[in-house]
Protein backbone atom coordinates (compact mmCIF):
# COMPACT_ATOMS: atom_id res chain seq x y z
CA UNK A 1 0.00 0.00 0.00
CA UNK A 2 1.14 3.57 -0.57
CA UNK A 3 0.34 7.04 0.66
CA UNK A 4 -2.64 8.37 -1.28
CA UNK A 5 -0.75 11.57 -2.04
CA UNK A 6 2.32 9.83 -3.48
CA UNK A 7 0.93 9.93 -7.01
CA UNK A 8 0.32 13.65 -6.67
CA UNK A 9 3.98 14.24 -5.81
CA UNK A 10 4.89 12.29 -8.96
CA UNK A 11 2.25 13.44 -11.44
CA UNK A 12 0.46 16.77 -11.36
CA UNK A 13 -2.03 15.81 -14.09
CA UNK A 14 -2.22 16.63 -17.81
CA UNK A 15 -2.41 20.41 -17.28
CA UNK A 16 -0.87 20.68 -13.83
CA UNK A 17 2.46 19.35 -15.16
CA UNK A 18 2.88 22.62 -17.10
CA UNK A 19 2.22 24.80 -14.04
CA UNK A 20 5.84 25.91 -13.53
CA UNK A 21 6.13 27.27 -17.09
CA UNK A 22 2.57 28.37 -17.65
CA UNK A 23 0.91 29.54 -14.45
CA UNK A 24 0.01 33.22 -14.31
CA UNK A 25 0.61 33.58 -18.02
CA UNK A 26 -0.94 30.89 -20.19
CA UNK A 27 -3.08 29.47 -17.41
CA UNK A 28 -4.56 31.37 -14.49
CA UNK A 29 -3.66 34.73 -16.09
CA UNK A 30 -4.98 37.75 -14.20
CA UNK A 31 -6.99 40.13 -16.37
CA UNK A 32 -7.51 43.35 -14.46
CA UNK A 33 -9.77 46.39 -14.76
CA UNK A 34 -13.45 46.57 -15.69
CA UNK A 35 -14.68 43.82 -18.00
CA UNK A 36 -14.55 45.37 -21.47
CA UNK A 37 -12.86 45.26 -24.88
CA UNK A 38 -9.64 46.54 -23.33
CA UNK A 39 -8.35 45.32 -19.98
CA UNK A 40 -4.96 45.07 -18.29
CA UNK A 41 -2.64 42.09 -18.27
CA UNK A 42 0.53 42.39 -16.18
CA UNK A 43 0.12 46.16 -16.12
CA UNK A 44 -0.20 46.50 -19.91
CA UNK A 45 -3.39 47.36 -21.82
CA UNK A 46 -4.58 44.50 -24.02
CA UNK A 47 -7.52 44.02 -26.39
CA UNK A 48 -9.45 41.21 -24.71
CA UNK A 49 -10.72 38.44 -26.97
CA UNK A 50 -11.22 35.81 -24.30
CA UNK A 51 -14.16 37.01 -22.23
CA UNK A 52 -17.60 35.51 -23.03
CA UNK A 53 -19.40 38.80 -22.44
CA UNK A 54 -21.04 38.57 -25.88
CA UNK A 55 -23.57 41.37 -25.45
CA UNK A 56 -21.40 43.66 -23.35
CA UNK A 57 -23.73 43.39 -20.36
CA UNK A 58 -21.04 42.64 -17.75
CA UNK A 59 -20.16 46.28 -17.29
CA UNK A 60 -23.18 47.99 -18.81
CA UNK A 61 -24.15 50.93 -16.55
CA UNK A 62 -27.79 49.77 -16.27
CA UNK A 63 -26.68 46.26 -15.29
CA UNK A 64 -24.15 47.58 -12.78
CA UNK A 65 -26.84 49.76 -11.22
CA UNK A 66 -29.33 46.88 -11.02
CA UNK A 67 -26.69 44.59 -9.50
CA UNK A 68 -25.68 47.17 -6.91
CA UNK A 69 -29.27 47.87 -5.92
CA UNK A 70 -30.04 44.15 -5.67
CA UNK A 71 -27.06 43.54 -3.38
CA UNK A 72 -28.06 46.55 -1.26
CA UNK A 73 -31.59 45.19 -0.96
CA UNK A 74 -30.85 41.51 -0.35
CA UNK A 75 -27.15 41.18 0.54
CA UNK A 76 -25.30 38.19 -0.91
CA UNK A 77 -26.75 35.45 1.26
CA UNK A 78 -30.51 35.55 0.72
CA UNK A 79 -32.14 33.10 0.34
CA UNK A 80 -30.34 30.47 2.41
CA UNK A 81 -30.70 26.78 1.67
CA UNK A 82 -31.60 24.72 -1.37
CA UNK A 83 -34.66 25.67 -3.42
CA UNK A 84 -36.60 22.68 -2.12
CA UNK A 85 -35.98 23.44 1.54
CA UNK A 86 -35.75 27.18 2.24
CA UNK A 87 -34.21 28.82 -0.84
CA UNK A 88 -37.27 29.37 -3.00
CA UNK A 89 -38.78 32.82 -3.75
CA UNK A 90 -41.31 34.61 -5.94
CA UNK A 91 -38.46 36.16 -7.90
CA UNK A 92 -37.00 32.75 -8.80
CA UNK A 93 -40.43 31.84 -10.16
CA UNK A 94 -40.74 35.14 -12.02
CA UNK A 95 -37.35 34.64 -13.65
CA UNK A 96 -38.35 31.10 -14.65
CA UNK A 97 -41.57 32.34 -16.25
CA UNK A 98 -39.70 35.02 -18.18
CA UNK A 99 -37.01 32.60 -19.35
CA UNK A 100 -39.58 30.01 -20.46
CA UNK A 101 -41.41 32.65 -22.50
CA UNK A 102 -38.17 33.88 -24.02
CA UNK A 103 -37.04 30.45 -25.23
CA UNK A 104 -40.61 29.49 -26.22
CA UNK A 105 -41.04 26.62 -23.80
CA UNK A 106 -43.83 25.82 -21.37
CA UNK A 107 -41.70 25.98 -18.24
CA UNK A 108 -38.19 26.69 -16.99
CA UNK A 109 -36.18 26.02 -13.84
CA UNK A 110 -33.34 28.20 -12.60
CA UNK A 111 -30.10 26.41 -11.67
CA UNK A 112 -27.43 27.55 -9.22
CA UNK A 113 -24.61 26.66 -11.63
CA UNK A 114 -24.72 25.48 -15.21
CA UNK A 115 -22.09 22.76 -14.86
CA UNK A 116 -23.74 21.02 -11.93
CA UNK A 117 -27.17 21.70 -13.39
CA UNK A 118 -26.61 19.93 -16.69
CA UNK A 119 -24.78 17.11 -14.98
CA UNK A 120 -27.83 16.49 -12.80
CA UNK A 121 -30.24 16.98 -15.71
CA UNK A 122 -28.56 14.08 -17.51
CA UNK A 123 -28.43 12.05 -14.30
CA UNK A 124 -32.12 12.62 -13.62
CA UNK A 125 -33.29 11.89 -17.16
CA UNK A 126 -31.71 8.45 -17.55
CA UNK A 127 -31.87 5.16 -15.69
CA UNK A 128 -29.70 2.09 -16.22
CA UNK A 129 -31.95 0.77 -19.02
CA UNK A 130 -31.66 3.99 -21.02
CA UNK A 131 -29.00 4.79 -23.63
CA UNK A 132 -27.20 8.11 -24.21
CA UNK A 133 -25.89 9.30 -27.58
CA UNK A 134 -23.65 12.39 -27.51
CA UNK A 135 -21.05 14.28 -29.53
CA UNK A 136 -17.45 13.25 -29.00
CA UNK A 137 -16.51 16.94 -28.62
CA UNK A 138 -19.06 17.58 -25.89
CA UNK A 139 -18.28 20.03 -23.09
CA UNK A 140 -16.83 18.60 -19.86
CA UNK A 141 -20.13 19.08 -17.99
CA UNK A 142 -21.90 16.77 -20.45
CA UNK A 143 -19.11 14.21 -20.24
CA UNK A 144 -19.31 14.30 -16.45
CA UNK A 145 -23.11 13.92 -16.58
CA UNK A 146 -22.70 10.90 -18.84
CA UNK A 147 -20.10 9.48 -16.42
CA UNK A 148 -22.83 9.15 -13.80
CA UNK A 149 -24.91 7.01 -16.15
CA UNK A 150 -25.00 3.31 -15.29
CA UNK A 151 -26.29 2.17 -18.69
CA UNK A 152 -24.92 2.22 -22.23
CA UNK A 153 -23.64 5.32 -23.96
CA UNK A 154 -22.33 6.03 -27.46
CA UNK A 155 -20.34 8.96 -28.79
CA UNK A 156 -20.71 10.03 -32.39
CA UNK A 157 -18.08 11.74 -34.53
CA UNK A 158 -18.31 15.49 -34.09
CA UNK A 159 -21.36 16.84 -35.95
CA UNK A 160 -21.21 13.91 -38.38
CA UNK A 161 -24.65 12.88 -39.60
CA UNK A 162 -23.64 9.38 -40.71
CA UNK A 163 -22.11 8.73 -37.32
CA UNK A 164 -25.18 10.23 -35.61
CA UNK A 165 -27.48 7.83 -37.46
CA UNK A 166 -25.23 4.86 -36.90
CA UNK A 167 -25.16 5.50 -33.17
CA UNK A 168 -28.87 6.26 -32.93
CA UNK A 169 -29.57 2.92 -34.60
CA UNK A 170 -27.22 1.17 -32.14
CA UNK A 171 -28.80 2.95 -29.19
CA UNK A 172 -32.31 2.12 -30.34
CA UNK A 173 -31.42 -1.53 -30.70
CA UNK A 174 -30.13 -1.71 -27.15
CA UNK A 175 -33.07 0.27 -25.77
CA UNK A 176 -35.41 -2.20 -27.45
CA UNK A 177 -33.68 -5.02 -25.57
CA UNK A 178 -33.60 -3.25 -22.19
CA UNK A 179 -37.01 -1.62 -22.50
CA UNK A 180 -35.38 1.81 -21.98
CA UNK A 181 -35.31 5.03 -23.97
CA UNK A 182 -32.67 7.13 -25.76
CA UNK A 183 -31.33 10.52 -24.68
CA UNK A 184 -29.51 12.44 -27.43
CA UNK A 185 -27.27 15.34 -26.31
CA UNK A 186 -25.84 18.06 -28.53
CA UNK A 187 -24.51 21.53 -27.95
CA UNK A 188 -26.23 24.45 -29.66
CA UNK A 189 -22.78 25.85 -30.41
CA UNK A 190 -19.54 23.96 -29.82
CA UNK A 191 -17.55 26.46 -27.82
CA UNK A 192 -14.07 25.61 -29.02
CA UNK A 193 -14.50 25.58 -32.81
CA UNK A 194 -17.73 27.57 -33.03
CA UNK A 195 -19.78 25.16 -35.13
CA UNK A 196 -23.48 25.01 -34.37
CA UNK A 197 -24.77 21.55 -33.54
CA UNK A 198 -26.74 20.04 -36.43
CA UNK A 199 -30.00 20.56 -34.60
CA UNK A 200 -32.21 20.77 -37.68
CA UNK A 201 -30.98 17.43 -39.01
CA UNK A 202 -31.06 15.84 -35.56
CA UNK A 203 -34.66 16.94 -35.03
CA UNK A 204 -35.56 15.56 -38.48
CA UNK A 205 -34.17 12.20 -37.36
CA UNK A 206 -36.94 12.05 -34.77
CA UNK A 207 -39.16 10.87 -37.64
CA UNK A 208 -36.96 7.81 -37.99
CA UNK A 209 -35.69 7.12 -34.46
CA UNK A 210 -37.26 7.32 -31.03
CA UNK A 211 -35.23 9.65 -28.82
CA UNK A 212 -35.41 12.79 -26.70
CA UNK A 213 -33.12 15.74 -27.36
CA UNK A 214 -31.20 17.74 -24.74
CA UNK A 215 -29.35 20.82 -26.05
CA UNK A 216 -26.66 22.73 -24.15
CA UNK A 217 -26.90 26.17 -25.74
CA UNK A 218 -24.39 28.01 -23.56
CA UNK A 219 -22.92 29.97 -26.50
CA UNK A 220 -26.12 30.22 -28.57
CA UNK A 221 -28.39 31.83 -25.97
CA UNK A 222 -28.51 35.59 -26.59
CA UNK A 223 -26.33 35.42 -29.70
CA UNK A 224 -28.30 33.32 -32.21
CA UNK A 225 -31.84 33.38 -33.57
CA UNK A 226 -34.12 36.24 -34.49
CA UNK A 227 -34.88 37.12 -30.86
CA UNK A 228 -31.71 35.72 -29.32
CA UNK A 229 -33.43 32.53 -28.13
CA UNK A 230 -30.47 30.52 -29.41
CA UNK A 231 -29.40 27.86 -31.87
CA UNK A 232 -32.80 26.11 -31.94
CA UNK A 233 -34.48 29.35 -32.98
CA UNK A 234 -31.72 30.06 -35.50
CA UNK A 235 -32.28 26.67 -37.14
CA UNK A 236 -36.09 26.82 -36.84
CA UNK A 237 -36.32 23.74 -34.60
CA UNK A 238 -36.82 25.10 -31.09
CA UNK A 239 -39.97 22.95 -30.76
CA UNK A 240 -37.97 19.80 -31.45
CA UNK A 241 -35.66 20.40 -28.47
CA UNK A 242 -37.09 18.49 -25.51
CA UNK A 243 -34.84 19.97 -22.84
CA UNK A 244 -33.13 23.28 -23.53
CA UNK A 245 -30.23 24.42 -21.33
CA UNK A 246 -28.31 27.70 -21.17
CA UNK A 247 -25.93 29.23 -18.66
CA UNK A 248 -25.95 32.83 -17.41
CA UNK A 249 -22.14 32.81 -17.66
CA UNK A 250 -21.94 34.07 -21.24
CA UNK A 251 -24.50 36.41 -22.90
CA UNK A 252 -26.11 37.08 -19.51
CA UNK A 253 -22.71 37.98 -18.00
CA UNK A 254 -23.45 36.55 -14.59
CA UNK A 255 -23.66 33.26 -12.67
CA UNK A 256 -26.44 30.66 -12.78
CA UNK A 257 -28.25 28.83 -15.56
CA UNK A 258 -31.61 27.33 -16.50
CA UNK A 259 -33.35 24.45 -18.21
CA UNK A 260 -36.61 24.74 -20.15
CA UNK A 261 -39.10 22.33 -21.66
CA UNK A 262 -42.60 20.90 -21.17
CA UNK A 263 -44.00 21.65 -17.71
CA UNK A 264 -44.29 18.00 -16.69
CA UNK A 265 -40.66 17.34 -17.57
CA UNK A 266 -39.37 20.47 -15.81
CA UNK A 267 -41.49 19.62 -12.74
CA UNK A 268 -39.93 16.16 -12.71
CA UNK A 269 -36.41 17.58 -13.02
CA UNK A 270 -37.03 20.09 -10.24
CA UNK A 271 -37.67 17.16 -7.88
CA UNK A 272 -34.84 14.97 -9.15
CA UNK A 273 -31.76 17.05 -9.95
CA UNK A 274 -29.48 16.23 -7.06
CA UNK A 275 -27.10 19.18 -7.53
CA UNK A 276 -30.10 21.49 -7.12
CA UNK A 277 -31.91 19.58 -4.38
CA UNK A 278 -28.83 19.43 -2.16
CA UNK A 279 -27.07 22.74 -2.87
CA UNK A 280 -27.75 26.38 -2.17
CA UNK A 281 -30.23 28.23 -4.33
CA UNK A 282 -29.08 31.00 -6.66
CA UNK A 283 -28.90 34.13 -4.52
CA UNK A 284 -31.45 36.88 -4.98
CA UNK A 285 -29.03 39.52 -6.21
CA UNK A 286 -28.18 37.22 -9.12
CA UNK A 287 -31.84 36.41 -9.75
CA UNK A 288 -32.75 40.08 -9.87
CA UNK A 289 -29.67 40.77 -11.97
CA UNK A 290 -30.72 38.02 -14.39
CA UNK A 291 -34.20 39.56 -14.75
CA UNK A 292 -32.59 42.89 -15.67
CA UNK A 293 -30.26 41.27 -18.20
CA UNK A 294 -33.06 39.28 -19.79
CA UNK A 295 -35.16 42.41 -20.15
CA UNK A 296 -32.23 44.12 -21.87
CA UNK A 297 -31.67 41.19 -24.22
CA UNK A 298 -35.37 41.34 -25.14
CA UNK A 299 -35.68 45.08 -25.56
CA UNK A 300 -32.28 46.08 -26.92
CA UNK A 301 -31.72 44.18 -30.20
CA UNK A 302 -28.96 46.69 -30.96
CA UNK A 303 -26.69 44.74 -28.58
CA UNK A 304 -26.93 41.58 -30.70
CA UNK A 305 -26.75 43.59 -33.93
CA UNK A 306 -23.52 45.25 -32.81
CA UNK A 307 -22.12 41.88 -31.73
CA UNK A 308 -22.75 40.45 -35.20
CA UNK A 309 -21.35 43.53 -36.91
CA UNK A 310 -18.15 42.84 -34.99
CA UNK A 311 -18.26 39.08 -35.62
CA UNK A 312 -18.66 39.65 -39.35
CA UNK A 313 -15.88 42.26 -39.46
CA UNK A 314 -13.48 40.03 -37.52
CA UNK A 315 -14.27 36.76 -39.29
CA UNK A 316 -14.49 38.49 -42.71
CA UNK A 317 -11.17 40.30 -42.14
CA UNK A 318 -9.42 37.09 -41.08
CA UNK A 319 -10.72 35.21 -44.13
CA UNK A 320 -9.72 38.06 -46.46
CA UNK A 321 -6.19 37.80 -45.08
CA UNK A 322 -6.19 34.08 -45.79
CA UNK A 323 -6.50 32.82 -42.22
CA UNK A 324 -8.04 29.42 -41.59
CA UNK A 325 -11.00 30.00 -39.27
CA UNK A 326 -12.38 26.49 -39.70
CA UNK A 327 -16.12 26.03 -40.07
CA UNK A 328 -17.49 28.32 -37.39
CA UNK A 329 -21.16 29.26 -37.75
CA UNK A 330 -21.35 31.32 -34.56
CA UNK A 331 -19.60 34.22 -32.82
CA UNK A 332 -16.83 31.92 -31.57
CA UNK A 333 -13.87 32.69 -33.82
CA UNK A 334 -11.06 30.13 -34.04
CA UNK A 335 -7.85 30.82 -35.95
CA UNK A 336 -5.82 27.73 -36.84
CA UNK A 337 -2.06 28.04 -37.36
CA UNK A 338 0.57 25.36 -37.85
CA UNK A 339 3.23 25.03 -35.18
CA UNK A 340 4.55 23.20 -32.14
CA UNK A 341 3.62 23.88 -28.51
CA UNK A 342 6.86 25.82 -27.79
CA UNK A 343 6.23 27.92 -30.91
CA UNK A 344 2.66 28.56 -29.75
CA UNK A 345 3.95 29.79 -26.39
CA UNK A 346 6.45 32.19 -27.99
CA UNK A 347 3.77 33.44 -30.39
CA UNK A 348 1.23 34.14 -27.67
CA UNK A 349 3.85 35.94 -25.58
CA UNK A 350 4.67 38.13 -28.58
CA UNK A 351 0.95 38.80 -29.23
CA UNK A 352 0.37 39.86 -25.64
CA UNK A 353 3.53 41.82 -25.01
CA UNK A 354 4.30 43.46 -28.31
CA UNK A 355 0.91 43.71 -29.97
CA UNK A 356 -1.38 44.05 -26.91
CA UNK A 357 -3.71 41.23 -27.99
CA UNK A 358 -5.07 38.80 -25.40
CA UNK A 359 -6.78 35.67 -26.71
CA UNK A 360 -7.01 32.09 -25.54
CA UNK A 361 -4.62 29.52 -26.91
CA UNK A 362 -5.47 25.85 -27.39
CA UNK A 363 -2.93 23.16 -28.32
CA UNK A 364 -2.54 19.37 -28.35
CA UNK A 365 -4.16 17.23 -26.85
CA UNK A 366 -7.32 19.37 -27.17
CA UNK A 367 -6.67 19.76 -30.92
CA UNK A 368 -4.43 17.61 -33.19
CA UNK A 369 -0.63 17.74 -32.78
CA UNK A 370 1.09 20.46 -34.83
CA UNK A 371 -1.88 22.82 -34.75
CA UNK A 372 -2.24 26.02 -32.74
CA UNK A 373 -5.73 27.34 -32.12
CA UNK A 374 -6.14 30.97 -31.15
CA UNK A 375 -9.72 31.32 -29.98
CA UNK A 376 -11.43 34.69 -30.04
CA UNK A 377 -14.76 35.78 -28.59
CA UNK A 378 -15.97 39.00 -30.19
CA UNK A 379 -18.39 41.07 -28.11
CA UNK A 380 -20.60 44.09 -28.71
CA UNK A 381 -18.08 46.23 -26.81
CA UNK A 382 -15.31 45.75 -29.38
CA UNK A 383 -14.67 48.57 -31.83
CA UNK A 384 -13.63 48.54 -35.49
CA UNK A 385 -10.27 49.94 -34.32
CA UNK A 386 -9.83 46.87 -32.02
CA UNK A 387 -10.60 44.60 -34.96
CA UNK A 388 -8.26 46.39 -37.36
CA UNK A 389 -5.41 46.36 -34.82
CA UNK A 390 -6.00 42.66 -34.19
CA UNK A 391 -6.03 41.76 -37.89
CA UNK A 392 -2.75 43.58 -38.43
CA UNK A 393 -1.20 41.87 -35.42
CA UNK A 394 -2.34 38.47 -36.67
CA UNK A 395 -0.79 39.07 -40.08
CA UNK A 396 2.48 40.08 -38.40
CA UNK A 397 2.66 37.04 -36.11
CA UNK A 398 1.79 34.66 -38.94
CA UNK A 399 4.70 36.04 -40.94
CA UNK A 400 7.04 35.56 -37.99
CA UNK A 401 5.73 32.03 -37.46
CA UNK A 402 6.32 31.14 -41.10
CA UNK A 403 9.82 32.61 -41.02
CA UNK A 404 10.69 30.35 -38.07
CA UNK A 405 11.22 33.24 -35.65
CA UNK A 406 9.17 31.63 -32.87
CA UNK A 407 10.99 28.34 -33.38
CA UNK A 408 14.29 30.15 -32.74
CA UNK A 409 12.90 31.98 -29.68
CA UNK A 410 11.54 28.70 -28.31
CA UNK A 411 14.95 27.00 -28.79
CA UNK A 412 16.74 29.83 -26.98
CA UNK A 413 14.26 29.61 -24.09
CA UNK A 414 14.86 25.84 -23.85
CA UNK A 415 18.64 26.38 -23.81
CA UNK A 416 18.25 29.33 -21.46
C1 LIG B 1 -21.05 24.52 -23.26
C2 LIG B 1 -21.08 24.84 -21.79
N1 LIG B 1 -21.94 24.22 -21.00
C3 LIG B 1 -21.99 24.47 -19.68
C4 LIG B 1 -21.15 25.37 -19.09
C5 LIG B 1 -21.17 25.53 -17.60
O1 LIG B 1 -21.88 26.65 -17.20
P1 LIG B 1 -21.57 27.39 -15.82
O2 LIG B 1 -20.38 28.27 -16.03
O3 LIG B 1 -22.85 28.15 -15.57
O4 LIG B 1 -21.34 26.37 -14.77
C6 LIG B 1 -20.22 26.06 -19.88
C7 LIG B 1 -19.31 27.07 -19.30
O5 LIG B 1 -19.69 28.10 -18.82
C8 LIG B 1 -20.19 25.80 -21.28
O6 LIG B 1 -19.33 26.42 -22.07
Proportion of beta-strand residues: 15-25%
How is the CATH topology of the largest domain named?
Aspartate Aminotransferase, domain 2
Shape: globular
Please, how many domains?
2
Order of H and E elements = HHEEEHHEHEHEHEHEHEEHHHHEHEEEHH
Q: Catalogue the unreliable spans.
A: none
Strand order, largest beta sheet: 4-10-9-8-7-5-6
What helical percentage do the residues reach? 40-55%
Radius of gyration: 22 Å
Question: Which structural class do you get from the secondary structure elements?
Answer: alpha/beta
How far the N terminus sits from the C terminus, by CA atoms, comes to: 41 Å
Report the major sheet: 7 strands, mixed
CATH superfamily of the largest domain: Type I PLP-dependent aspartate aminotransferase-like (Major domain)
Number of separate helices: 16
Going by CATH, the architecture of the largest domain would be 3-Layer(aba) Sandwich
The top level CATH class name of the largest domain: Alpha Beta
Average residue-wise pLDDT: 96
The ligands found in this model are: pyridoxal-5'-phosphate
- Using DSSP, what is the number of strands? 14
